[in-house]
Amino acid sequence: MTERIYLSSEILAGDVEVIDCVPRNDGRYSVRLKSTLFHPQGGGQPSDIGWINEVAVVHVAMEEGEIIHQTTAPVTQGNAFARVDGELRQLYSRLHSAGHLIGHVVELAIWHPIKAHHWPGESKVVFKAREDAQNVSAEDIQVICKNFITEDLPCKVTQRDDGLREVSFGHFTPYLCGGTHVTSLGQLGDIKVQAAQMKKGHLTVYYDVV
């Protein structure tokens, strides 16, 4: 199984070992690495893209329990140099961390986050009401989020003995998460809470980072 360096390191470039490279039916190639810097699509987050040597990595996904790097051309087996697109990684990390922060803030109003989607242009967090849940507006959420961003709460990542991973900011209760994040909330910049909509007992908060 591929060692997942991206879970415990912010390194975006380094030496890797190509285990194999197999042609795909869509014209791309499936590349397996001994260890990877690339975050695969999942957990509500898009995959990293980048390069192995000079070959473009255009998508990374879990396929039958293996991390597969889809490339535009074949990659030679053996030692190689991998680079993650740092600008996109930072954007995805900001969106994911912003989603966590919104989750924490709305939980303060007695709502329980049940799912999230952290893609550019379509980010949202969905909540289910708990007993005594309070009314919240997009404006309220944004103001409280900005206060915590100003405090620059640090991110803490904990790898549990059972293999699961927890991510928290400051004093907030951690969420189980396999995604990438900013090192502290000050790196988020500004959150734009676009809407907070109720439908069939669920509250959906739409947002972006600017």
Structure overview:
The protein is α+β, with helices and mostly antiparallel strands and 210 residues long. The protein has 2 domains: 14-84, Elongation Factor Tu (Ef-tu), domain 3 (Beta Barrel), CATH 2.40.30; 88-209, Threonyl-tRNA Synthetase, Chain A, domain 2, CATH 3.30.980. The chain has 2 helices and 15 strands. The chain has helices at 86-107, 138-151; strands at residues 3-4, 13-23, 29-33, 35-36, 50-52, 55-63, 66-71, 78-84, 111-117, 123-129, 155-159, 165-169, 175-176, 191-199, 202-209. A 6-stranded antiparallel β-barrel has the order 2-3-7-6-5-8. A 4-stranded antiparallel β-sheet has the order 9-10-15-14, covered by helices on one side. Strand 12 and strand 13 form a beta hairpin. Helix 1 crosses helix 2 (138-151). It starts with a strand and ends with a strand. The model has no long low-confidence stretch (mean pLDDT 96).
